[in-house]
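pinging the channel bc i need a second pair of eyes. not urgent but kinda urgent?? the chain im working w is below, pasted from the shared doc
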Amino acid sequence: MPDYHTLDDIDVSGQRVLVRADLNVPMADGRVTDKSRLDRLTPTLVELADRGARVVVLSHFGRPAGRNVPELSLQAVAAALGKSLGRPVAFAPDCVGEAAISVVDGLADGDIAVLENLRFHAGEEGNDPEFAAALAALGDLYVNDAFSVAHRTHASTTALARLLPSAAGRLMQAELDAFAAALTTPSRPLVAIVGGAKISTKLDLLENLSAKVDVLIIGGGMANTFLNAEGIGVGKSLCEHDMAATAREIMAAARANGCEIILPIDAVVAPALAAGSLDTTVAIDAVPADQMILDIGPDTVARLREVLRGARTLVWNGPLGAFEVPPFDRGTVALAHAAAELTDSGSMTSIAGGGDTMAALHHAGVAERFSYVSGAGGAFLEWLEGRTLPGVAALAR
């Protein structure tokens, strides 16, 4: 049983339910270009409306820094949400005050409204109690369905949750259940893949995972820093030479915890990161001084496939190479397909998260085949680092 309330625990009929959502979707020319966040929010909103709630959606959009910035209005997003839901969505030109009160008061049971961008008010990011109280006055119940902002101590994620009876929405519940299955009570062996550019941005993550997982696979630019720390030349590759001692400390701590760290054994190299650049595959200890490591090589892919075959749980954050520029996507795509096949067979639970990781799995065409893919970059990372997320803590029973 979760230590937070869910929609199963609250009677919403005839109640004004404030739903903290994440409507921070990509836009171009006034149109939503990727509505996946809206689609993932749909189950919570539809369930609440069908159960007779008066649904009031709260969200931020962009970084207006406490000012009313017309191009960061949520009005166009509200219209797109209505299309995703297949039902009308009202819009209020402010999230507090008379404009908001008028729209909320006009809702009938089962109706849905979106209020204007929370971040038009400095009180949102300032976690201002007066702003939170003004929001709370619009509702009877609070539902947080935005795990992606659960790492923020903002008025709509923490202060508001403590002013009204609170629960997690279906998307938040799914994220928390998936993450608990991955790190709190995982089936073992538990394998983690950590990629990306720099270890300096993922120190806490690497330290926390090395104490919890059985195997830690390191790829992307950060693998070069570990290779360099072991005295292996990495040519012109992205490498944090000043982090060599830190890399050695992480490896020593992992060994002490019984965690195996796996680094590339071969690499795809090229003179520059550019499409059409002449690429070659070399052993990891034979990287030419004038070349850059841009992907893992086929021998590394084969070895990692074998590791995944023995895994029961996989946590993945960060690509293994410069996947945005073919042909340096081959390693990431191959491993993504291997993980998807093992997930399909039922032999492994696969949890992935972070913006780059989500993009890489969509690029590989396998995102839907993973057990769970979270688009919550910062929140997913902080959760992997073992931190308490304020927006989750605020929902505690």
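so The chain has a mean pLDDT of 94. and The chain has two domains: 7-170, 186-384. — does that match what u expected or am i reading it wrong
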